[in-house]
Fold this sequence. Notes:
The chain has 489 residues and is of the alpha/beta class. The chain is built from 20 helices and 15 strands.
Amino acid sequence: MLVLWPVHQLEMDHSQYLGIMTISAVLKEHGISTEVVPTDLELISKRVERDDEVILAYSTPSALATVYVELNRQLKRRHPQVFSVFGGTHPTYFPKMVEEEGVDGVCVGEGEYPMLELVMARAAGESVKSLENWWIKDNGTIHRNAVRPLIEDLDELPVPDRGIFRRAADQSISHAIVMTGRGCPYHCSYCYNHVYHKLYAGKGNVVRRRSVDHVMRELRQLKEDGCGFIRFMDDLFILLPEWVKEFSRRYREEIGLPFTCLVRANLVTEEIVRSLKEAGCHRIMMGIEAGNDRLRLEILKRRMSSEQILEAARIIRGAKIKLVTANILAIPGGTIDEDWETVDLNIRARPNYASAAILQAFPGTEIHEIAEDLGLLEDDHLERVSQGGFGFTTALKGNDAGEIRQIENLHKFFPLVVWFPWLKPVIRLLIKLPPNRFFELMYMTCINFGTHFISIPPAIGGPLLWRKLKRRFLPGSRRSAKPAEAAGA
Ligand code: B12
Ligand code: SF4
């Protein structure tokens, strides 16, 4: 029995999927083979043919749902005997995707034990239709099973199986994405967390943290393997101040690598930022999201004031930690003037880099309902947000096409205008032009500079950018995913 995970853009250095790695580690503990492969129809076909029984498993963010469903449809036409399952954020928000052609089952919520049970049951020739967390299609009938309680103690999980990616792709080991816990207690309308709170009501605490010991074990291994930089991607790294203090002390003594993490402005204090700095924190990312109070409080449901944001930014900058802000444009019910307010609040916060995304109203989230109530959804909205486009444009309708165009263009100039506020009058004029390659190039330049020279120390980010450019522009070095035979080695 082989569990095979097709991964979009597997060759990219940031393609580090902890969901896949953790499930893989659990499966391997039970003697089950698992591999990742690039989303290449021929490669996957060859690999499928080499094993008697294969489960195709897709870890599916909404942005890639259509990409994976389409790939799977083609694979199932060639290999009807494989069993195809989908898990991750999109199936969790939108389990109805089980109705798609070729999908045999979707896993709702946390996947380690549900996947283990499913694989074991199939290996034993047993039925999988009543397994917890699964929506299973069986002879045209869909069986919708409830979720099991959340894993209470994350320390019971094995260290993520990073080897699964290293064997399959020539990814850089210079930096690693690490999660020290799961869940966030807040309920921002565009985020996955409120969905989890609803889904798991009465079934355990959504917010959980690994012990410092457990995290250190993983980090020591990463350091031994040559990793030089850690990206903690916990939703809210500073949620538990006592944990952070213990972690910071031990991290400084035992690991000492530069790292980044994410914070929320209302939780930032001088004391916590000092301990992060002492531990070696290189960059902090903090959401500003919207400068306009109505959009921030009522639409995005981010309960914090502009003053709190500015004070947190002051504390982070004061500690000489690089500050990167996260922002959202094209918010349902918002206007271009309100998006300029976001620029203005960023200018006042003076981040080292201001990142911005165009809001994607993923199905299952509250912001999707808000957009629906405002009549902003096109009939093909789901397809539009799930083709792997990663948000260069909005999929929402607006009252005025000209205004939408300005917002999409402002997105391309966002980091630049926060760096150089004196450019505002020029950019106000430029964004009235039709979207064009120059604007995109400007955006890609800023984003690559921000990612590789600000968010990551340049000594590590520089080589990463070089690898990326080589892959993009030098023929022959484009595919750094290894052939399926090597992946299985
Ligand atoms: C690290 C991270 C990234 C990394 C790595 C990609 C990744 N998806 O891991 C990078 C920086 C590349 C990234 C990019 C993007 N991300 Co991101 N990212 C995260 C983050 C912070 C952590 C993911 C993680 O490692 N979680 C820990 C693991 C253990 O949990 P998990 O992945 O959910 O997996 C568990 C279950 O979902 C399930 N499961 C997962 N896959 C499968 C498959 C099967 C078969 C089964 C049975 C179960 C199963 O079991 C796992 C173990 O319990 C999450 C927020 C979060 N806290 O989860 C956002 C999040 C996943 N990202 C999000 C978004 C929007 C994006 C982007 C689209 C942003 C953009 N505009 O470009 C891109 C998409 C790129 C991509 N290909 O995924 C959204 C997704 C929303 C949605 N509806 O899909 C999230 C949820 C953030 C949010 N605020 O809502 N991201
Ligand atoms: S604070 Fe961040 S992680 Fe928490 S719910 Fe809001 S957006 Fe999601």
